[in-house]
Batch of 2 targets.
Target 1
Amino acid sequence: MSRHRIVRTMDYNDEYDGYDDVYGHSVDDDHCISPTDAQQWLYDRERGRQSISAFISKNKDIKEEGEHDEDDEDEAYEKARRDSESFQMPELDEMEQAKLSSCVDEVRSVVGDAVSERRIVETSMKFDYDIQKILDEILNEETKKSAKPALRPKVPVPIAATTVKSASKPTPPAKISLKEPRRGFEIASPKLPSSPVVSGRNTPVDVGGDNDLSRTSASVFKVSKDQAQRNAQQLYEKERSDQKSHIHMIVIGHVDAGKSTLMGHLLYDTGNVSQRVMHKHEQESKKLGKQSFMYAWVLDETGEERARGITMDVGQSRIETKTKIVTLLDAPGHKDFIPNMISGATQADVALLVVDATRGEFESGFELGGQTREHAILVRSLGVNQLGVVINKLDTVGWSQERFTEIVTKLRSFLKQAGFKESDVSFTPCSGLTGENLTKKAQEAALTSWYSGRPLLDVIENFKIPERALDRPLRMSVSDIYKGTGSGFCISGRVETGVMCVNDKVLVGASREQAQVKSLTMDEFPQTSVFAGDQIAVTLAGVDINNITVGCIISDPQTPIPVTTRFQARIIVFSVKVPITMGFPVLLHHQSLIEPAVVCKLTASIHKSTGEVVKKKPRCLGSNSCALVELETSRPICIERYADFKELGRIMLRVAGVTIAAGMVTKIR
Amino acid sequence: MKLLGKYVDKGMQGNVTLMPEESEDMWHAYNLIAEGDSVRSTTIRKVQNETATGSSTSSRVRTTLTIAVETIDFDTQACVLRLKGRNIEENPYVKMGAYHTLDLELNRKFELRKPEWDTIALERIEMACDPTQSADVAAVVMQEGLAHVCLITASMTLVRSKIEVSIPRKRKGSVQQHEKGLAKFYEQVMQSILRHVNFDVVKCVLIASPGFVRDQFHDYMFQQAVKMDYKLLLDNKSKFMLVHASSGFKHSLKEVLQDPAVVAKMSDTKAAGEVKALEQFYMMLQCEPAKAFYGKKHVLRAAESQAIEMLLISDNLFRCQDVNLRKEYVTLVESVRDAGGEVKIFSSMHISGEQLAQLTGVAALLRFPMPELEDSDDDDDEDGAAGGDDSDSD
């Protein structure tokens, strides 16, 4: 028909339906919006409808977590145990599950991460959750294994299915990489713990069938042979054995506790700030009539921060001690900037809690809803377990010992409650402004009369370096995106696990876009490879700047990070004003990512210490409870299970400027 | 909305003639019209005529059609309501049973006939025709790098634009990038305000943010306004109001609407009232869990014993297709009213309504505690599971 139309004489007005002309211009046209944005704006009647019916009539036959068929169990278990890395817990009923998980935790606390989860679970089942016996068995096994040649003990024992791959390609035994068998598992594993990818803003890589993706990931994302067979441990030893070890330290505390001043003074005393710059700060701060801020200005660089005299974003700088290179992260103390503080704290290994000793100030920071408490709990929930407490401004109370001990006793009991081990917490008196007891031993007579301990710098020096997960697949969280000096743009962040080298191929964010590493810099010095725990800047090629957002994760192409909009987490609820119910909107903090999310299901409330299920499907969660919940985000995010990647499995929930819960991801769907 | 005629008989059958006057009325119409109703309105139809020789001409005619509604589409951004259905009345241009899509237009009346009018629908008409209800407020919730420009009307919260800019962090020696990024972001937000906020209608513009972002932005905006001579902004400077919010995400609008200064200014608007009611519910759940319930099953049971003091119900429950289900909710509302309780119908287009919809869509504050509700349903979990409205945490 259309072939015979007389196109030339056609009256377009008639053919035109008129709609696009008149309607559908909801937003201005030249301002293009992405489908996800549009979806957010458009009211979809069907969506609402579905949700009602879902509440009312359907959903009856959805299986609950605990339900299972006895018959299927053995079979499913057998299947699941074939892959160790993506090992799934055998399906057990609630009681067993609780017993098992507490058992696993117990064992983990003794043996650490060296033993695979599968082994622990199997052993636990074998000995019917008798911790003593399980530990015996596992430790015996371990010692046997460690008697064998080097490099092996840390890896979970490879399994037949995957060794085929390494066997077919003979490599000298010393070169068998730590990563390889592991990767093999992922590829061979029937199901990667990830959900279908809902298209992000841009989805250049076709990730349609997710199961396909995980199975064929090796072929979809090709990497160089070099990258595939890298030996992280060896590389690390080669590159870093002659260097001091790195540690990241975040400085936290109530607003105006003197965090920035303390850090500024420390930097000055260690010779990291030149005399000339300091003099400039002194003059300028004098002009504003705020001379006491001269040290804080070392870290507070924006005009806004200086004018207001508070830190707003995390300031970063580094000092070198005798044995360590310490990256200082100066967190803002003000309540409104806690999101910034969280993103800083996710990068930290250890923390320094600064409290103001001035009468009234300590109390307001600690007792009357101040940030001392919240910060301490936050960093603990974010996995920091070594804490140095600095009792600052002690000169204002005449270096009084009573005041010092009073504060120490109060803090000690609180920190114990918060979950810090007593041996990992130290208390140091000092003054950030005068510089007493910072780098050198205390000189002030009033202080030396009762204090003979270490100065602050030694405390920092004495922090233990946490173990870095070098042999895991690469994960890096993006905390900042900016224009570099040369071409292209830089993203900076922290390498959580694994190794990254120049020319590596990596996947970026939830869209899993492929990019190539062009250059790596650490503290302004170019590097050829960076390792877990490093704070780095990367220049990427092959990816658009608009497709990277703060908080997205860069991952290894061979074992890409799961992408999901819905996951289950075990949360601990702090003291909340209103209880958490289903449908509760929260802000989800994960690494540097802040994403709105909804608590869509309260699966069970569990006992805080034993982990037993107290109540299935509770109506609401009150203060200081512990529960399993499901969270749903509007946009897909990259997240890992806590069991797989500790660093990437921690989350924080905040509402209206208050942290209401912390948790860890237990299941991704 | 203007009510031009209402003929509803004792059997609750009948028709109503309405004329939408502003975009908000479309939302009301959307809530009124259900599938199976018939709507009569004037529309444009393209008519094709075939002459004797076989050549065809097409012409557009304006005609009045009556259709039996089959599908309803609502575009929240443009506030356009589109009804699709079969023609059920003789017409010179359109055959009986032919499909047509009606676009309801502003200032053109339409006639709505329902097989049965219920109280909810009649109430909706009353509400839509109440001129005092209208209070337009624009709100900008922002944080560094993220801003939502929203319009809050009596029964809708519309996100007019969402601005997301990645602002480089401050770093050693290069603060300029941070400040440049910030300026770019503020510029975008300001442009968006200029474009989307109609200062003739809007009573006040709330600027909410954590920290000092709002002050910084406010300063920037008026500096620019002076520099670029934006009369519109300068004339309306007094309408801007700075409020605290914890983040730049949409749901922090809730905090904004709870702010005492804002409450004082827009006290009796529906949006603020809804936020307050939901807050009350949560407070009750915290203090006396046996006096606050949610989920259809619990609420129905509480209604049976005439215990409900305040019923919170989301209007999306009344929009459902299932006639019987709708009827159930209507009877629930009526029974609560009969027992002297208060009923608050939340608009699902508001932030609080969204949250209520997530919370099964129906919640109730009781007059007296009914702990037996909490305990009773471990045995009959079946339908409770769908709504999640069962057992308590203790």
Target 2
Amino acid sequence: MNIIVPIKQVPDLVEELEIDSSGKALDTEWLKYKVNEFDDHALEEALLQKEENGGTVTAIAIDGDDIDKALYAAAAKGADRVIKITGLGDNPSNHEAARAMANAIQGIDYDMIFTGVQAVDDRDGQMAILMAHYLSLPHVSVVTSVEVSGGTATVQKEYSGGVIAEFEVQLPAVMGIQAASETPRYVPVARVRRAMRGTDLEEVSAGDVSVGGSTEVNRMFKPESGQGAEMISGSTEDIASKIVSLIKG
Amino acid sequence: MDEMTRVIFRNFPTWMQVMFYAVAFATIAFFLYGFWLRYKKYRKGRDSGRFNNVAGRFFKALGKMTTNSTVMKRDAYAGVAHWMIFWGFIVLLIGTAIVAIDHDFLHLIFGIQILKGTFYLWFSLFMDLFGVLFIVGLFMMLFRRGRKPDKLDYTRVDRDPEEYNRKGFATDDRIFTWLLIVIAITGFFIEATRIAADGFPEFEKWSFAGYALATLIDSVGALNPIHMAIWWIHGVIVLVFIAYIPYSKAMHMLVDFANLMFTEDDAVQNLPRVTEEKMKEGMGYLKLQDFTWKELMDFDSCTKCGRCHVACPAKNSGAPLSPRDLILDMRTYADSTIGKSEWFGQTFSANGNGKAKKEPLIAGDVIKTETLWSCTTCMACVEACPVGIEHLTTIVNLRRTLVDEGDMEDMLQDALMNIGDYGNSFGKPERMRAKWTKDLDFKIKDARKEEVEYLWFVGDYASFDARMQDMTRKVATIFNKIGLDFGILYEGEKNAGNDVRRIGEEGLYEMLAEDNIAAFEEAQFKEIFTTDPHSFNTIKNEYPDFGGEYTIHHYTGLLCKLIDEGKLKVSDKLKGVKVTYHDPCYLGRYNGETSAPRKLLEAVGVELVEMPRNKENSFCCGAGGGRIWMDDSGLEERPSEMRIKEALSLGDIQYFIIACPKDYAMYSDAVKTSGNEGKIAVRDIIELIEEAL
């Protein structure tokens, strides 16, 4: 079972976030990055599948802040190939990123694509969907369990209200992973260092990523607090008359 | 005076003498073969770098052996009994050697005899005296064993009764003791029958025990054949014993001397590094050949005395770890794979986590994962061991294997990830490290920007744990008040790594040590101090291996020094207050600092009532070695709660004094969870200083 895992670096939310002078994006100067938590689960699920059924795991990412570190960590955890897509500008849209991913994995033999169901930095949740679209593959999202048998996979999807739905999907397919069946593993520093020395970090060009359109942030801001609330107290009559006077202005 | 001697091989025909020598030589060959088997086994281990200063090591071990000091420690009864058996054995061995040299060498070759006259009289006296001591010691041991002390209980804490069989251990114990008893008693009977058969010569009264026994058996008659029969029984049993030595518990007489000789006083204070090669192929131990020969010898050195078993906080709290059993399991496993030497051993199932498909994993099956993670690295086992076993190097090396395979619980994993990402286990951003200083009414110098005399290494818990920050500010305020020139590294400091290393995450430890040393190098200071005994240990003992050599004080030591120099003045204001003091493992046991905190307590006037387990024998709070980041809800009773009970057993004690940030967190909780709130208050020693200023 060969699995491709697109991963992404997102700002570490432990740090306090600042909006930059444009008012449309985060101030990246002091940001620390870490792997998107859902992508970490996607990678873990892929590695668990590999351990159970054999095959390979390929981690792939768009070039960006600290991305080498993330890819080496993926290799240290057990990814067989790690690929960095270059040639895209800063902050490509998810449409462009999905196009670039779809281009980059041409020529790689795969049965499944696992990626995080969403990323904490854009809450777009469309990466898996867009890739499925560009690759003309079936797609299931919010996946919490994958069981492969022959050319199909039985996947579970978490519905709201604690209900789970089970699907059978023809492979190859793209899945948006909500949670791996085990907590993403710890990778010891020695292994990361070993991976940094011994792993071939492949680079491929993004290719043609022209897409019809995409979204743009108008304004980014922190929740603005309102005027505050006034609690009206007193007897029922007092309260009633106060409300009346407020309505009358 | 020439007649004052005894006849060797009295009344023995020549063929009988020849037969005895033939059997004796065969026995010695068998003994040497067993000895060689052991040697071959240890040769399979890695080099341990312990062949420096061999003469010094020899005499140090000789001192421990001849005085039995390590056996006497905290168990006078067993110590005295062992001393009697030890010296009884040695004197009787020397005596027999003198007989052999005199008879087989001096007499046969040079035709002279020294074992006669006055020398023979003194010889007789000494042999009888130590023979009696020998027997008394052995019976003391039998009596002790009969009372079934916890130490000698072979029940396992990590496996169900049907999962193991340890009857071999008990058999070996019995064979060992009874062989020695029978040898000693038959020896006296040979002497008695000879004295009686010779008609009670006056000079034989020097053999006081044999002479007395002779008067009792005189009426039996047929003394000459009885003498010969007992001689043979004695001789054969002695030969059986010699043959038995290298295959049994009796081997401790030889191996344990070597183990004491090659043990290192700072073996666990300064853990072995992982070699470059090992780092490349996966740290930790996977096969027996990965162990050093000293570690392989550790496994064979254990006499099952159980001192570590009863001292261990994990075992005492119901965790599935007994340091004794860990060592014995490793011995059994080594015996089954790289060379069998023990005849009477144990069997146990080595499929701990059900992973044993083909070869059992050492870390995971032979020694269960949960066993390895139960260790608090408090060092009580190593300190208690009378024969120099270094349990902790084995435990940490096996933990390194678990870490390499990611075999750990989520909470610990999170802590390691946080330390890797932010340099602290709390998962707080680096720049928050010095946030505790905000509430001070003065500014602490930034040692990275200006020169200070003392660099304060604050540590994670003192910096981030809300319960501890008050104490940290008190330390700062006092040092500021007395005008001590000190500074901190602010966000330049990272977790010191002491416990990260003991978890087995050596790669992360190296990173932390290198980063902290780099920060130290950029700062300007003369000496370091810290309130954290864990940071104190690794900076003092382990950073030098990474190129960072510093003088570091624990704050208790520094406060003492400042009092001595007259820079800190305290009064005995707290006179009449009864307190007890808990020695932190990494201060008292690891680094021998037990006097400074006590001097401080004396200076502030409190009355110190010691807990039964104090100083080097202190009982761990349960937080060390990364346990503070692991789930302790499965324990029957937390070590910290047991410790609070120990303090309460002293009667009316107001304060439970600690000198370690982790202890403050652990014991404040334990007072509450054990339902003793209001009965005793946990206080940092700095609070007493503050009150007595």
